[in-house]
Every structure is written in structure tokens, then in C-alpha cells.
Backbone:
């Protein structure tokens, strides 16, 4: 797994992706498939175009673009975030309707019609917890990038919550100091890390009461009542999920959470205080 997590898709991330893929295909044992999992605020076309760069054109092809749709919350998305979501759906040749167990039969049919109106040729899979057989997703044929040859890339910027967003001099010149125009989709992110255990109840309360300007939160947590096992947190829309994962083994136990929200929608001081208040001591748990 290669993690590219620092920068805008318009800036350093695409260069890093290109460099990483070149290194992968030049290995003595190159992979059969490369799966690129983007964030929920990425432009699939911009990412896909990386693979027709001269360095990769003869060695890779885009097999498919898969968009995962939150069946429960897609109808609640508004504004620029909805604009981005609809564009991601229209770009896909396969759409996974996830959390299908949380909607009724009529809503399922409406969702399928909603998808087909925007991308009639897409294959649609219904799923719970994103479970779709891999052989249905891999090796399905070449994605037709030519249909987006004249499509302008979305102007998406993802900035750290403290406002820091560095570019070298050529990037600054190219992006005109990153001036954000009306059509620009700008998101802020913020990360929280601590080695102290968190109270399970306090953590859930803190996540469930996040302001509506925060769209997504996820990460791994160290809990006071199960310190030997990773807690995995997912927050999207109005739904919060905390499940238990594998043991820490040789990893250093610590909480690592990432939040993404609208521009100026993340108050770092408030979030820091909110999650610092969840810190506690380990309970008496036998190893």
C-alpha cells in the first residue's frame, strides 16, 4: 500500500501518483492490478488521466472507474458537495450502491433510476459494507477516457485545517497563488493524534455531535476498555460507526483521526478541545 496524503489533487498528489506508479511497473515483479483509492473529494477524471502520461501509456490502462454511493445520504447532499458527487457518478462506469440495507425497496429503485439518468451505461451493484466480489470489479475492460477528452478537470483543493498549503515557486505561479474562484471546490482537513486512550462513550458523543460543516471523519482509535485491539471509527452524514479491528501487535497503540469539511468549516481549537476531553486512563483489562 502506498499512501499519498499530502497535497491537492491539482498539485503534488498527481505528481506523486505518477512517480509511484512508474516505480511499481518498473519493479522486477510488477503488479497485475493497481487500485487507486481516492478521497471522497477527488476528481476521478483527473486521477485517470495520470495513466495516459507518456511514462505509463504503453504499460498501463485504466480498467474501470468505480464510484461508491452512500445510499442513505446521497439525497441529503447539497451545494458544491452535491455538484462534486454528481460529477463523480457521471464519470463512473461502475457504481456501487452501498448501505443498501438502510433504504427500502422503493428507495432502491429510485436510486437506480437516479444513477441511470446520469450514466446509462454504468453497471450498478448493490452492497452492504461495500462487499462486491473482486472478479466483478477487476479485469472488466478498458475504460473509455476519450469521452472525457474535452471535459475540464474539477478545480478541487484540499487544505490542512490550519490553513497551511505550501507550493514551490513554479506551482504558485501556475496556480496564481491558489486564488479560489466561485466554481472552486475547497475543502479543509484536520488530523488528531494522541497516545493516551480515549473513553469509548466520550468518543462516540464527540463524533456524533460534530458540526454539519464536517462531512467525513475516520481513523483508528485506542480505547480505554479494549486497549489491545484497534477501534475503527467511520463518520459520514448523520451516521457514526465504531467497530473493533485487529490487535495492535507490534504497532504503537495510538489514536489517529482525520476529518474533512467545507472551506472554513473546521475549527481546529474546538476539535482539539473536544477530543482532548475524551482522553482518560486505561481500565483494568487483563492481557
Residues:
Amino acid at each position: 500500500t502506498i499512501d499519498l496524503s499530502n497535497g491537492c489533487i491539482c498539485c503534488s498528489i498527481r505528481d506523486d501518483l505518477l512517480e509511484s506508479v512508474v516505480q511499481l511497473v518498473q519493479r522486477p515483479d510488477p503488479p497485475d492490478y493497481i487500485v487507486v483509492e481516492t478521497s471522497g473529494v477527488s476528481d476521478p477524471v483527473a486521477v485517470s488521466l495520470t495513466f495516459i502520461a507518456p511514462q505509463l501509456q504503453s504499460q498501463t490502462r485504466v480498467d474501470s472507474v468505480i464510484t461508491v454511493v452512500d445510499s442513505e445520504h446521497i439525497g441529503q447532499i447539497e451545494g458544491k458537495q452535491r455538484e462534486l458527487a454528481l460529477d463523480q457518478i457521471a464519470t463512473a462506469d461502475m457504481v456501487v450502491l452501498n448501505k443498501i440495507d438502510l433504504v427500502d425497496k422503493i428507495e432502491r429503485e429510485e436510486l437506480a433510476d437516479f444513477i441511470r439518468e446520469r450514466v446509462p451505461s454504468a453497471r450498478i451493484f448493490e452492497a452492504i459494507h461495500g462487499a462486491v466480489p473482486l472478479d466483478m470489479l477487476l479485469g472488466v475492460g478498458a475504460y473509455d477516457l476519450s469521452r472525457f477528452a474535452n471535459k475540464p478537470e474539477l478545480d478541487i483543493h484540499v487544505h490542512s485545517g490550519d490553513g497551511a498549503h505550501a507550493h514551490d515557486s513554479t506551482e504558485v505561479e501556475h496556480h496564481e497563488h491558489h486564488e479560489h474562484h466561485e466554481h472552486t471546490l475547497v475543502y479543509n482537513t484536520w488530523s488528531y493524534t494522541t497516545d493516551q486512550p480515549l473513553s469509548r462513550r466520550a468518543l462516540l458523543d464527540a463524533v456524533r455531535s460534530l458540526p454539519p460543516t464536517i462531512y467525513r471523519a475516520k481513523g483508528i482509535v485506542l480505547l480505554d476498555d479494549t486497549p489491545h485491539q484497534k477501534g475503527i471509527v467511520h463518520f459520514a452524514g448523520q451516521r457514526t460507526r465504531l467497530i473493533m479491528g485487529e490487535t495492535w501487535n507490534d504497532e504503537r497503540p495510538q489514536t489517529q483521526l482525520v476529518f474533512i469539511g467545507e472551506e472554513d468549516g473546521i475549527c481546529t481549537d474546538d476539535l482539539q478541545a473536544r477530543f482532548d476531553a475524551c482522553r482518560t486512563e486505561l481500565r483494568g483489562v487483563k492481557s
